[in-house]
Amino acid sequence: MTNKLEALDIVVVGAGFAGLYAIHKFRELGMSVHCLEAAPDVGGVWFHNRYPGARCDVESLQYSYSFSQEIEADWQWSERYAAQPEILAYINFVADRLDLRRDISFMARVASSIWNADEQIWHITTEAGANLQARFVILASGGLSVTRKPDFPGVDSFEGLSFHTGQWPEEPVDFQGKRVAVIGTGSSGIQAVTAIAPQVAELVVFQRTPNFIIPSRNRPLDDAARQHWAENSTAFRARAKQVGTLYEFPSVGALDVDDAARRAEYQRRWDGGGVNFVHSFNNIYTDQAANDTAAEFVRERIREIVNDPVTAAKLCPTDHPLGSKRICVASGYYEAFNLPHVKLVDLREDSLEAITPAGVRTATVEHEVDMIVFATGYDALTGALTAIDIRGVDGKKLSDKWSAGPINYLGLMTEGFPNMFIVTGPGSPSVLVNMLVGIEQHIDWIADCIATLRERGAASIEPDVSAERDWVTQVNAEADKTLFVKANSWYLGANVPGKPRVFLPYAGGIGRYRGICDRVAADGYEGFRITPEHAPGESD
Ligand code: NAP
């Protein structure tokens, strides 16, 4: 990549769904934009998550861009829930269609981004040594892009093949007849188990926390379903802007109806499949007693499906409310444990002591395997941001500022780091809503903001300290209204030793969040400090 010595208007970090839309949007505004992407091609998490069974649990018709009717009309989804290859093909289709690659440097991992207050310019450097300058930086580096492999003793000593679900190789992995260990039973692990189980000679699943897994009931999309979407897409997309994903949102609570009606509703949604189950009643996320009824319904299904009662008991989640860890979706997961060659190891009974050259050793036994799949998650929401050496005003480091938690305003910006925008990061609805809806809302808002600054001849924007302090309070208050705070989840950073325990996403909903962001903009960017062009470096 050649160095660009003249400052660009915009540098975008990351060429996933968010970064690609950002390139398109800023080009439309007539701005110079360049994107830096660590991977060899577009796709973000969908480039890397090639593990068997990888599939999105937001329905494909909704997990797609809404900004272009032409793109929507020219792409046909084949299944209710698209698998990773189809999502990646869609992302490539959009990149080609909008000719986005000419403004992307691949294999260009950003190492640092340093603010020069005199020039009011960001200086961005890649690990390969390229340098760029830009007035604005858009961090579209992904909320679930920095994989985490726990520091198990001997983790690198294994002599077979090992993979992390989030860094899966491009070449196919042959599981046929192999002995395989899967460590981790979150969304990635359970999908991998479901897909791998029928192929392997032996599968050992290492579970620390059992999760609630709802069947997906995936199926091919027929013409009638596609036509229904096409005929109603304007209304559907408008509604999605308010609710995120188009689940059925009821107005009654789980305890407002009698037992028979409650069970019937759970059964209907279980049979329908997907995350819609968690929305069976309007208080599953907020009321423990209501949540208990949903949780018990799922535990009954587990005991019904899994033949061995001891294994079934181990698979039943009891230590956190349903949905307080990200709900998982896959058909056939519980059924896999009825296969004679699939074994569950409950790490709470028999702890994982070490990875050995031959496999995985627990307190009681060494499981010899040919392959290990680490489905052990991510340093979520903040990991990709603090991994870059970002320095703002007076050389202040972002990782230092966020050492006790990611202080920010609207999830979009943080004080002391002017002209640096974060897409679907901490403090925004991000992972709690359909990512595509959140991404489009963010990029549109950021683009309007930058266009307004240009019209006003302003040089920079950053939040007030008081505005971000109030926002953090609001984010915490929204989380405290929910049961999310009752689980040791990655939403709270609980999966990364030493990470501050702070509920990261905004739990107030995309509709309310969108309203707040729009009001802030309409009120002249209330809570932000805008510095005029003629006064570089001035902060008030
Ligand atoms: P995850 O939800 O964080 O799951 C990681 C798993 O590894 C958990 O079961 C965790 O156990 C286990 N683990 C972590 N450290 C461990 C240790 N030291 N010893 C033993 N077990 C350990 O990660 P993920 O499954 O990759 O999913 C992350 C998120 O990506 C999802 O929640 C979802 O938002 C997204 N995703 C979505 C889809 C989809 O759309 N279907 C698919 C994949 C991913 P504990 O629970 O005990 O920590």
What topology does this entry show?
Layout: E1 8-13, H1 17-28, E2 33-36, H2 45-48, H3 69-74, H4 84-97, E3 104-105, E4 110-116, E5 121-126, E6 131-139, E7 161-164, E8 179-183, H5 187-196, E9 202-207, E10 213-214, H6 223-243, H7 259-272, H8 288-305, H9 309-315, E11 328-329, H10 333-336, E12 342-346, E13 352-355, E14 359-362, E15 366-368, E16 371-374, H11 383-386, E17 389-391, H12 398-401, E18 420-422, H13 435-456, E19 458-463, H14 465-480, H15 510-522, E20 528-532
Kindly list the characteristics that best describe this protein:
540 residues; 17% strand; 15 helices; binds NADP nicotinamide-adenine-dinucleotide phosphate; single chain; disordered C terminus; five-stranded parallel beta sheet; FAD/NAD(P)-binding domain; eight-stranded mixed beta sheet; 2 domains; globular; alpha/beta
Short description:
By secondary structure, the chain is an alpha/beta fold.
Descriptive report:
The chain contains 15 helices and 20 strands. With 540 residues, the chain is of the alpha/beta class. The chain folds into two domains: 293 residues, FAD/NAD(P)-binding domain; 214 residues, no CATH class. A hairpin with a 4-residue loop joins strand 4 and strand 5. The chain is globular. Bound molecules: NADP nicotinamide-adenine-dinucleotide phosphate. The site of NADP nicotinamide-adenine-dinucleotide phosphate has 27 residues, from helix 5.
Unreliable parts: 536-540
Query: What share of the residues lie within helices?
Result: 25-40%
Unique bound compounds: NADP nicotinamide-adenine-dinucleotide phosphate
CATH superfamily of the largest domain: FAD/NAD(P)-binding domain
Instruction: Summarize model confidence as the mean pLDDT.
Output: 96
The end-to-end distance, rounded to whole angstroms, is 38 Å
Q: What's the helix count?
A: 15
Largest sheet: 8 strands, mixed
Strand content is 15-25%
Structural class: alpha/beta
Question: Could you give the count of β-strands?
Answer: 20
The total number of structural domains is: 2
Q: Output the CATH topology of the largest domain.
A: FAD/NAD(P)-binding domain
